[in-house]
Design brief:
Radius of gyration: 21 Å
Structural class: alpha/beta
């Protein structure tokens, strides 16, 4: 792997829920190599979005470090953090909620440039036009309001806004989950295109492994606030070592009717446990199809299981491949 532009070290994020504490992110260490796209995958409630917000310093971790380009962001006050906010941007899950309906698109996209004092009026107008072209929207979009666009078009506007400050690092939090299936692939393609065009380093947060497979270099799988598997995308997708990863892949539809009819699905037991009171030892053992007594008493360490691969499981790879990688 190339040197990481961003890395986290033992990041912990806790929230108070009444008199109790909820640990949404539990000692997560993750590296995002410069110029690459890393996918953070897991079901709802796994802590993915909270981790993304902690990376952006939208919320402060209770413990651990977020290091960007060699600088520990968690040690910076707001004034010293400001230059890094220009270099790091975020695309939010719901384009219907993340765009101000009372602002015209041109103002929405140009606002980050005005906040960070980037360019004069003519330079800002020229960059807005260039960004709209980059995401596949016509230049007259600037005079219209978000309510005049479809969900997919709104997310393209959100992407253009995130690119306004010419960032180096982009966090895309479930960028297509609020969109119709028919346009999800289009928006993912736009993200991939702008990543290559602007030389971005990207963290994509998603619950659909099959979706992030198309655009990521590496995948980290998260369950109840912890990373349970990480590695190169093709290795994780076609040779999962953790049973939770295998179950996520099993839930992803295959675009081949014959294969879809014959493949065996992995059905997990029960619902995800509450992060307020997670299971002992391996947090997945209450739902795991291969769990044994040791899983409830000994916490598996995140250890190497191949070149640039790690897994936290007492019985890695026992379920075997779920998808055909030929």
């Amino acid at each position: 792997m190339t040197a990481p532009l961003l890395r986290t070290e033992d990041v912990v994020v806790r929230f108070r829920v009444g008199r109790r504490s909820l640990t949404a992110v539990d000692r997560v260490s993750l590296s995002v190599p410069k110029g690459e796209t890393v996918g953070l995958v897991g079901e709802s409630g796994s802590g993915k979005t909270t981790f993304g917000l902690a990376v952006m310093r939208a919320i402060d971790p209770n413990h651990g470090r977020v290091v960007f380009d060699g600088v520990d962001l968690t040690a910076l006050g707001e004034r010293r953090m400001r230059p890094f906010r220009r270099r790091m941007q975020m695309i939010f899950q719901d384009p219907f909620a993340s765009l101000d309906p009372k602002m015209k698109v041109g103002r929405i996209i140009s606002e980050p440039m005005r906040i960070h004092s980037i360019g004069d009026r003519q330079e800002i107008a020229s960059r807005v036009s260039s960004l709209l072209e980059a995401v596949g929207l016509p230049s007259d979009t600037v005079q219209r309001y978000p309510t005049q666009f479809s969900g997919g078009q709104k997310q393209r506007i959100s992407i253009a806004r995130a690119l306004a400050t010419d960032p180096e690092f982009l966090v895309a939090d479930e960028p297509v989950s609020a969109l119709d299936v028919s346009i999800q692939a289009q928006v993912i393609a736009v993200l991939d295109q702008v990543k290559k065009r602007f030389g971005l380093t990207t963290l994509i947060i998603a619950h659909d492994l099959a979706l992030v497979y198309q655009v990521t270099d590496r995948i980290a799988v998260m369950y109840l606030g912890q990373i349970v598997e990480e590695g190169p995308t093709a290795d994780v997708v076609f040779d999962p070592r953790h049973p939770y990863t295998a179950s996520l892949l099993s839930a992803s539809p295959v675009p081949d009717p014959e294969v879809e009819r014959t493949r065996e699905r992995i059905v997990l037991r029960g619902d995800p446990p509450s992060p307020i009171s997670p299971p002992s030892a391996c947090r997945f053992h209450t739902r795991c199809p291969i769990a044994r007594p040791v899983c409830a008493t000994e916490t598996p360490a995140l250890v190497s299981c191949g070149p640039n691969r790690t897994v936290a499981c007492h019985f890695p790879g026992e379920l075997g491949p779920v998808l055909d990688g030929r």
